[in-house]
Design a protein that fits this description.
The protein has about 55 residues and is α+β, with helices and mostly antiparallel strands. The protein is built from 1 helix and 2 strands; from the N terminus they run H-E-E. The protein is elongated, with a radius of gyration of 17 Å. It starts with 10 loop residues before the first helix and ends in a 7-residue tail after the last strand. The relative contact order is 0.23.
């Protein structure tokens, strides 16, 4: 069994530790259903880039 230097952390812990400024809003496509709140029908989400050691 492999031994790790650090205790495993959850994705939630990593995102909360990165903080709000680390969030990047990414638009991956424009959909077809336009609404009042989303007139361009963009499909977006927020992502936190994180490097993991190899």
């Amino acid at each position: 069994m492999a031994k790790y230097r650090d205790k495993p952390s959850s994705l939630r812990e990593l995102v909360l530790a990165a903080g709000h400024p680390a969030l990047h809003r990414i638009t991956w496509r424009h959909g077809s259903k336009r609404t009042k709140g989303n007139p361009t029908a963009r499909m977006t989400s927020r992502f936190v880039p994180h490097r993991t050691p190899a």
